[in-house]
Design brief:
By secondary structure, the protein is an alpha+beta fold. It contains nine helices and 18 strands. The protein has two domains: 124 residues, Aminotransferase class 4, branched-chain amino acid transferase, N-terminal domain (D-amino Acid Aminotransferase, Chain A, domain 1), CATH 3.30.470; 160 residues, D-amino Acid Aminotransferase, Chain A, domain 2, CATH 3.20.10. The structure holds pyridoxal-5'-phosphate (PLP).
């Protein structure tokens, strides 16, 4: 009983989000409590939505939205894959995001743009149902826990395969696709792990439920080719950091046993940032703590997001929030 209570307490601490005052909803700022949708919204019934996950960071002087343009590029690509005609232009949504942070006085936060098919036709075909667009921004701590970031997480190969690319399209963040991740994550948590790692249809390691995956062996990094995964924006940062630091990184399929015998394993994602993996299926990875290469990439990524490392200025959109 005590253990359950402790876990619940940590759930609140680690995964709790702090609501903010306003949500941008179809072009207007509305109060958080008033940002509601009709129960017959098509998206609610059939998963017809697309979304993004973006983070804003802050140093002592300045706040930045990290890779704003790339996230909205992917949002519009998701819309294309899902055959959504978005009722706003990309620059309008980018501006709305900046304005939302100012309006909510958020120096750092997680940002969730979502477009979903509204009520109207109840059949599978959404016909001409309205497409609604919202942008929410709120404080949200480390996705896999502060301990996860500093000490590494315990992961499990999921009994759920990563969705087949011919049934669900992995290049887009379509809401309905995420039931695959939800099932895998729930299973992992129920069994006492922090995260699930999914294999693709052919049994190769694909990715986490919301993160791309990397293994390090003999100083070289391997990561899954993009065919079965979401093309992570953090993944692109990892490639750039490796280039800067002369670390060899290649896209190559690998199996679960190669994962077990790796020197280091880590995950990347906007929510999870760079999270080390210290154990997979009860096999200790390397020395059971974050490895040298993982720590270097983690530090570099953190410095870039916060503007401590000046190099990637074009990845940061400055937002003027009164201090
Ligand atoms: C399935 C999946 N893979 C990987 C990622 C990492 O992508 P990014 O680094 O762009 O956040 C995400 C997060 O959006 C995801 O949902």
């Amino acid at each position: 009983m005590t253990i359950i209570l402790i876990v619940r307490k940590y759930d609140v601490l680690f995964f709790g989000m702090k609501k903010s005052k306003y949500i941008w909803y179809n072009g207007k700022f509305v109060l958080w409590e008033k940002a509601t949708a009709h129960v017959l919204s098509h998206g609610l019934h059939y998963g017809t939505g697309i979304f993004e996950g973006i983070r804003a960071y802050s140093n002592k002087k300045q706040s930045y939205i990290f890779r704003l343009k790339e996230h909205y590029d992917r949002f519009y690509n998701s819309a294309k894959v899902a055959s959504f005609k978005l009722p706003f232009k990309q620059n309008e949504l980018e501006k709305a995001t900046i304005d939302l942070l100012k309006k909510n006085k958020l120096k750092y936060c997680y940002i969730r743009p979502l477009a979903f098919v509204g009520e109207g036709s109840m059949g599978i075909n959404p016909k001409s149902n309205k497409i609604n667009v919202i942008i929410a921004a709120f404080k949200w701590g480390t996705y896999l826990g502060d301990d996860g970031i500093s000490k590494g997480i315990r992961a499990k190969i999921s009994s759920f395969s990563r969705m087949s690319v011919n049934s669900f399209m992995t290049k887009s963040k379509i809401s309905g696709n995420y039931i695959n991740s939800v099932f895998a994550k729930q299973e992992a948590i129920r069994l006492g792990y922090d995260e699930a790692l999914m294999l693709d249809d052919n049994g190769y390691v694909s990715e986490g439920t919301g993160e791309n995956i990397y293994i390090v062996r003999n100083g070289e990094i391997k990561t899954t080719p993009t065919s079965t995964i979401l093309e992570g924006i953090t993944r692109d940062c990892v490639f750039n950091i490796c280039k800067d630091r002369n670390i060899s990184i290649k896209e190559q399929k690998f199996t679960r046993d190669e994962l077990y015998i790796s020197d280091e394993v880590f995950l990347s994602g906007t929510a999870a940032e760079i999270t080390p993996v210290r154990e997979v299926d009860h096999r200790i990875i390397g020395k059971g703590k974050p490895g040298k290469i993982t720590k270097l990439i983690q530090k570099e990524y953190s410095d870039i997001t916060k503007g401590i490392n000046d190099k990637y200025q074009h990845w940061r959109t400055t937002v003027q929030i009164p201090r």
